[in-house]
Structure formats: structure tokens, C-alpha cells
Amino acid sequence: MSSGSTAAFRHLLNEIGSVDQVGIEERVAKYTTRSIKKAAKVQGLKLAVSMVDLTTLEGKDTPGKVASLCQKALAPHDGLDCPQVAAVCVYPAMVKHARRALGEDTAVRIASVATAFPSGQAPLRTRLAEVKAAVADGADEIDMVINRGAFLAGEFQEMQDEIAAVVQACGAATLKVILEVSELETYDNIRAASFLAMRVIRPGDFIKTSTGKTSLNATLGNNQVMIEAIRDFYLETGTPIAMKPAGGIRTAKQALQFLIAVKETLGDAWLNNTRYRFGASSLLNDLLRQLEKEKTGAYQAPYYFSRAAESY
Amino acid sequence: MPALTPEKKRPAARSAGRPLPELIFGDLWEYDPATETADPKLKPRYDLFIGGKFVAPASGKYFDSINPANETKLAEIAQANAADVDAAYAAAQKAFTTTWGKLPGKERAKYIYRLARLLQDRAREFAVAETMDGGKPIKESRDFDVPMAAAHFFYHAGWADKLDYVAPGRKVAPLGVVGQVIPWNFPLLMMAWKLAPALAMGNTIVIKPAETTSVTALKFAEIIQDAGLPPGTVNIVTGFGDTGAAVMNHPTAVKVAFTGSTEVGKIIMRSLAGTDKKMTMELGGKAANIVFDDAPLDEAIEGVVNGIFFNQGEVCCAGSRLFVQESILPAVIRKLRHRMASLRVGDPMDKNTDVGAINSKAQHERIAHYVRLGREEGATLHASDDTDPCVSPAADGKGFFCRPCFFSDVQPSHTIAREEIFGPVLSVMSFRTPDEAVSRANNTPYGLAAGVWTDKGSKVFDIARRLKAGVVWCNTYNKFDPASPFGGYKESGFGREGGVHGLRPYVDLD
To answer: In this structure, are B364 and B495 located in the same domain?
Structure first.
């Protein structure tokens, strides 16, 4: 890091404040001692279902796999009074197949990971072209990755300019900015990157933890850093930014803990799928299984729930 | 009166523009009650525990112990008089000269380990009893009080056969019979703090729990029986202030230990002046939390909240004075309000309750008095919805509750900034420079604990060194460990509890 970029990082941290790792991990540990029962549990589980971005991001994805994913998104499980998920999330090449499967007239949105996901290591014009192509094929939302190299090198302007260019390329599509927290490593970096991104995206756009393609993905700790950044940014500017933790959230219990964090940090205005999403695939069936248990009083075997999504 | 420049009517705040952004902590997704249902296994009536047996009080009198969350009667507690205290000391003296006092250290250790394990076995039952009797939230009694009490017995059991290392180079011996009086804020834990070192060092004990919280002490008597401690090793006498005075003043006691208010501590010290009794006093506090402008703010707020609202603020080391660097004062007040909004006040037995019931009617009145006083003195009250915080949330109005609150615009001369409130009431003040922070923090008759919040390591050490407090926490608060000594400066008392320092008051050095 050049001395200029060190100064830039210090300057930014002075402006937005730093994060104490020990303290924030103690804070989020308190969420895990909350006990969610009865009607509150059912409501929380349904809310979580409505926030899922049902995801498949594999090299072996085919139109058939995407079609079954879309069907699962539209009707997660028979016999449960259960909402549809918020969106399906696929690679750009799969967007047109998802659109065909979902149809034009659907509440389930199509999100696509563009910008040379997951590394982002392609020329900017290639990344922008990918975004435009995905939007043209029918994507409602674009999940981009930030230029971590630029961020870690202290080239904040470059990182922000690229995000701004993607915003332009998105047109009417909602943007989700993936920070890839495991590559940023420290909570200070995650907070700094959150602010840099929030300053160039639009109200209602998202910041997102991770691609799901690295070792460490969404945790209560980095979720907390990001929702506190969203809160501080909102109180300062009045601009509401949405949040999407992705990867690693596999159980209903985890999802409820993330929702508890949202309720107690950002408040009621973020408890809906325009402000909060889960990037997940196996989570959905665990949510359904818990809902079934709340309804019938007994756990059903996993094979009673259709397996249409396996990714992260 | 001559008219000065007519006061201009200020336009309604931002009536033209958008309203200020604000967060909504409402009931869109409300948690259902999650009540702990374990059986506390209470007896309808508890006798005194003297000479290894439960015995009826000489007077035949009993008083009620009530659940402060709903004001219902939990159990009847025996009221000990001077004759009962005499009997307890006689039993303790006999155990010291014939059994416990003669046991080798490694044998004592076995008994103390057994106490710790038996307490762990019955942890849930004890947590429920503690919460019903004292009003603290079940998550605190479950996650803090009971495990910490067991940890103190485990730690001190390890010391029992290592008396030679308590004061290297010196010969140490048990003292004899010790008298102990403990408070109501951490009934079981304070009992463990007192019993464990005294037992490990080979002493026998007469202990008196507080009148509002005797239940877990008497339940612990069952564990003492189950562990097979020689009769008379630990004797528990219950009652009011006169019972406590009899325990402290008894001629058989070679050492007394007291945890409680500075006011009562002074009375005890006066009455013991001129005797050769050893004393340790752990008294009141008015701890300062100092937040510098370079501190990670959300974590500092979390620590401040933990520091003052833990156990409803009924903690001698509660960080009841908050000093904030002036440049960040508005930000801190806003963040405090937001954090306070998501604290859950109510039924202590609910696993989601963060702040439970105040221990007693008398304490509730004392807190309400200080809240009134703070407003009269001109400070600004902040409570979750800015109404009177000292009102019960229960539909029938029963129970002693006080919602967390804090005062801004507090001046150092205000009573609420000087006296110990012992409730969930925080006084927020500002400072400009580190020197000013230190001098304001030290400007109190107390000196039990303090906290420093800054990102800068050198500042931590500089400030901590200059604070006159027995414990200084840096970038954290309310951290306890049996190996770490705890105690105060000035009117917060003398002597240390915990660690090797806490053993010395319980041994005779030749």
C-alpha cells in the first residue's frame, strides 16, 4: 500500500468510525440467545422464506436445472400457507431460461451475478457488457462483485467509479454490490467498503456479503458490521440501502438469528424483502421443514421436501 | 417586566423538508413469551441452617420472601435472633476445632469440588430459584450467576492444598470462624465469593444472606448437606439488619467480610472499631465509563449498556456515570437511545428479557426517587418512550419494574451524578481533554470500577493508570473471573476478593 492510500484509508475510517472485533462478536452472540417460539417463529420463518434469493451458481447449471429451481421458487411446498421466495439467482447465461420458466407476469424476480462473478477479474468493458446482456435477457436484479484488488490497494476512487458504471449499466434493474467479506478480512475493511459502495448506489440497492465461492461467507459478525453501516448511512443521509447476507446460511435457526439482528439494529422498516434478502439454496427446505413442524407438531423426513436447489 | 426582543417562533422542525430519518423499533415481528419452566423445587418454609441441620428459629418467627416480578409469596424464611446467631457460632467453632479446621488441604479440596459439581448438576433449578427470588432475568442467572458461582468453587478448590503458595516464604494457617454478610443483588454468586476462599483456607463460617434473597442460600444448604461437609462448617442464619449486626459483632468471629452499601459498611466499621477482628468491606460504587472520540462507537455503546443495565443496574460496579468526549456527545446520545429501544423489559422468567424486576419495593422507591430528583435538578430524561420509567409493564400493575433510562445535561454537582442509585439509571456527561476526563472520573468518594473506551493502546494504559478504581476495564465492561481480584478504593471498601489476593484475608500469616 502506498503512503497515499494508507492516508486515504485512515481518513475514511476517521470519518465513518472503526469496529472493535471482540465487542461486535459479543454483541452478535446475544442474538443467538434469543428464544423464538410459537407464532413469532412461524412469522419469522415465513418472513425468511419471502426473503430467499434461491440460488444456483454452478458450472453444471442447465436450462432444466434452472427450470426446476424456478418452479420451486414459485411454489416452495404444497400444503403450507407459505409465500413465494423473493427471487431466483442465476448466472447471466441462464437468465433467459429463468425468464422462460417464470414467465413475464410473476412476483418472483430474477437476479443474475454479472461482472465476471466471482473474481471480478475481467476488463471493465467486459463486465459492463455482461451486466447489460443479463438485463436485456430479463434480469430484474444484478449481483456485482467489487474490485477487491482496487479496494485493498487503496484505489477507492477506481472501486467507486466501477460501481457507478455498473449502476448506469443496470438501468432499472436493482443492484446488489458484493463486498466478498472473506477477502477483505477485517471488520474495519468491511465497514469501509460498505460506505464506499453505499455512496454510489441508489436507494433500495443492496450491499451483499459474499459470493459463496470462498471459504468464509455470511456470519452474524460481518452481517452486523454491514447493517450497522446501513443504519449509520441512513441516519446521516436518509437513503435506505438494503442488505443481503449470502452463503453459509443453511438452517432456519441461523436465518432467524439474522432476522433478530435486523430487528434489533435496523428496526421494522428492514423486515421485508425489499430491504433484506438471504442468498441461499439449502436454507429454503430447512425453513419449510420447520414450518411443517410448527403446523403438524412433528418433523418430516427431508425426502418429503422437493430438492430443486443445491448450491450454497 | 420590560419586553426584551420578542421571542421568535421557530418554524416547526423541518416542516418544509423531509422528516429526519428515524428507525422504527416496533412490533412488526414481536417475540412470543419464551418462559423458562424448570421447577425451582422450593420448600414452603425455610429454617435456619446450623450445625449441618435445618433448625427452627428460637423466636419461632418467620417472614415472607416474595417474587418481586409479581409480588407473590415464594416461601417463609426463618428470622434469626441473637440466640440463633450464638448457636451458629458455637457450631462453627466446634467444626473448626474438631473437624474442618483439622482436615488436610487436599481433603478440603474434595469437598469444595463436590460443592461445585453439585451446583452444576442443579444449575437450571438454581437459576430459576434465583430469578424468582431476586427478579433478575433468567438469561443472566442461567448464563452468569450460577456458572460463575460454580467457577468460584472450582477455582478455590484448587487452592485448598496450596496454602504454602498463598504467601511464598511465609507460613499460613486458617484463621478460625469468620462472619459474613452478603447483599441481594447476586445472592448465590456473592455467597460463592465469600464461602469458597474461606473454606479453601480452612475456616468455618457463619453467613447471613440478605432478607429479600435468602432462598438460593438455603437451597445451597441442601448442597452442603449432600456434599457431606462436616456439620457446622457452614452455618446460614437469615433475618434482617439486627441479625446481620449480631453476625458481624459476635465475639467468636475472628474475621468479618461484608458486601453491601457504604452506609451499612460504615456502621459495621464503627461498631467493630477497637476490636481485633480482621475486616474486608466491598461497598458501593459510582463507576465512570470514559468514551473517547476515537473509540469504536457501537461497541462502546454496547459496553456502556452492559455496564449500567446488567442486573437492572443493581451492581456495585455498575458504570453509572458516562463521560463522553464532547465532540461525539450527540452521536452517543442518539446511539444510546436506539440501543435502549431494543432492550426488553418484563417477566424475568422470559428467556428474551434483558432487564427484569427491581429486587424490592424499597429499592424501587429509591430508584424512582432519584429519577424524580434528576428531573427536578434540570437533567433531561431519556427512556424508551420518554414516559415515567418506574411503572410496571404488567397489566395488573404488580411487580417492581424500572425501564432502562439515562439522563443527559447532567452536571457534576447533580445528586444523580454523585450518589449511588443502584438501578438502571445512567448519567451522561461530557469532557474535553483526557486530563479533564480523569479528574472528573476520580471526583467521587467511591472507587470500585471504571471503564475506558478508545482505539489507542497508549491512551488505554495512561488513563487506566490514573483512574482511582479497583478494577479498570478497557474496551469492555463487567468481565469477571475467579482468578481476578475485585475490590475498591476509598469509600468503595478495602480488601480484595478473588485470585490469590482474595485468599490472604482468610489466613493467618506468621
So the answer is: no
Domain span at B230: 45-283+490-509
> Does residue A244 have an active-site annotation?
yes
Separation of alpha carbons B487 and B447, rounded Å = 9
CA distance to B296, B372, B377, B486, B506, per residue, from B153 (Å): 36, 42, 46, 16, 15
Catalytic residue among A143, A188, A205, A286: A143
Interface residue A100 vs chain B (CB under 8 A): no
Average pLDDT across each block of 10 residues of chain A; the chain has 312 residues. List them in order: 70 94 97 96 97 95 95 91 95 97 96 96 96 98 97 95 98 98 96 98 98 92 98 97 96 98 98 97 94 94 81 49
Q: Are residues B376 and B457 in the same domain?
A: yes
- The nearest CA of chain B is from the CA of A38 a distance in Å of 7
Across the interface, do B32 and A271 touch by the CB < 8 Å criterion?
no
Question: Which residues of chain B neighbour A267 with C-beta distances below 8 Å?
Answer: 23-26
CA distance linking residue B408 with residue B426, whole number of Å: 9
Question: CB–CB of B437/B463 below 8 Å?
Answer: yes
Nearest-Cα distance to chain A for B25, in Å, is 5
State whether B350 and B419 are in the same domain: yes
Is there a domain that residue B450 lies in?
yes
Active site residue B317: no
The residue written with cell numbers 511464598 in the block is B168
CA dihedral B224→B229→B235→B236, nearest 10 degrees, is: 0
Active site residue A30: no
What pLDDT, on a 0 to 100 scale, did the predictor assign at position B10? 46
Joined together, the cell numbers standing for residue B335 give 446511539
Check residue B248 and give its pLDDT. Answer: 97
Cβ contact A22–B475 (<8 Å) = yes
In a domain, B1, yes or no: no
E strand intervals along chain A: 52-55, 87-90, 109-113, 141-145, 174-178, 206-208, 242-244, 278-280
First vs last C-alpha separation in chain A: 34
Residue range B184-228, pLDDT digits in tens? 999 999 999 999 999 999 999 999 999 999 999 999 999 999 999
Provide the pLDDT for residue A78: 87
Distance, in Å, from the CA atom of B384 to the CA atom of B309, rounded to the nearest integer, reads 13
Question: Min CA distance, A142 vs chain B (Å)?
Answer: 27
Of B28, B139, B476, the CB nearest to A268: B28
Domain CATH code at residue B387? 3.40.309.10
Containing structural domain, residue A138: 3-296
Interface contact A266-B23, CB threshold 8 A: yes
Chain B residues inside the 8 Å CB shell of A13 = none
Whether B349 maps to a domain, the answer reads yes
Distance from C-alpha of B103 to C-alpha of A297, rounded to nearest angstrom: 56
Q: Which one of A72, A132, A176, A208 is the catalytic residue?
A: A208
Contact A23 B300 (CB under 8 A): yes
Q: Does A39 touch chain B (CB under 8 A)?
A: yes
Predicted ipTM of the assembly: 0.93
Residue A214 lies in a domain: yes
